[in-house]
Amino acid sequence: RQEQYLKLRDVPAVTKDGAKINLQLNAGLLVDLPHLDDTGACGIGLFRTELQFMISERMPTATEQQALYSAVVAAAGDLPVTFRTLDIGGDKILPYMQAVEEENPALGWRAIRIGLDRPGLLRMQIRALLKAASGRALKIMFPMVATCDEFVRAKALVEREKVHLSRHGYPLPADLKLGAMLEVPSLLFQLKEICTVADFLSIGSNDLMQFLFAIDRENRRVADRFDPLSGPMLRALQRVVDKASATDCELTVCGEIGGRPLEAMALIGLGFRSLSMAPTSIGPVKAMLLALDADRVGALIRDELERDGGGDSLRPILARFAKQH
Ligand code: PEP
Ligand code: MG
């Protein structure tokens, strides 16, 4: 199997009916970087910067942060990298940060909420990213954005750091794109506004599922209770892809569903053209899409959602389609 996938490394990711799919990988540590080469991925669609913080015994210094980001940018060469700013809190605890007692940590003080309340921390990270990508292209995205205003405030922090660095004579990135993760359902109802201020959106399907269905993703009793291939989630995804396509806002899915072949088939059918996933998923997803008629599966899903968008899973129908084609 692995060997068969290895052979696909240099095969362009194009569906049978000609849709070009951008397959990128999710990473978070230096050890992940060789996968860029061995999978033939088109870039890093999600670099989880919190991992460096989580494995460290103390807060990584600005220099240490910059060193990691520089190494990532260097390894990627001409390929794009999307760095996600610190996504801590919830289930991701830093041992050296004072623990806050929270009744519902997943709904608590986390991710961009911490970043905006402790701008010193976020600005240090942004500065390290800007320096690491000096003269090159850089993409930064913010986790757990719930309102457009949060994104605008984070963007203002980036602007401030750019001015600060320029004033001190540092060359800035040659190109800078800022994006929001779409993983809090409230953003589904601000799509027009967020697409106007953000350069790109990246769907965090793990958290979007958690918050859409109110199921703790870490709680085995409920985590798999609802299917992402059921009406509510597929309709949410359809809404995003339809609205984003009408604007210049780039769109990626970087949650786990993009790395599962049947789910990836549904995403491509709905119109997604960029997926970021664990390195081991690239081969299986590419093998699937090379045999896929995207328009056909798209029509099937849209018909089904039109007919009955209730809680029923489309998994059996999609599995049948996959088998027949
Ligand atoms: C997600 O929520 O889907 C996501 C990509 O982020 P994480 O899994 O790191 O929360
Ligand atoms: Mg998330």
UniProtKB/TrEMBL annotation:
This is phosphoenolpyruvate--protein phosphotransferase. GO terms for molecular function: kinase activity; metal ion binding; phosphoenolpyruvate-protein phosphotransferase activity. One of its GO terms (biological process) is phosphoenolpyruvate-dependent sugar phosphotransferase system. One of its GO terms (cellular component) is cytoplasm. It is found in: Cytoplasm. The keyword Transport applies. Keywords: Coiled coil, Cytoplasm, Kinase, Magnesium, Metal-binding, Phosphotransferase system, Pyruvate, Sugar transport, Transferase, Transport. Belongs to the PEP-utilizing enzyme family. The gene is ptsP.
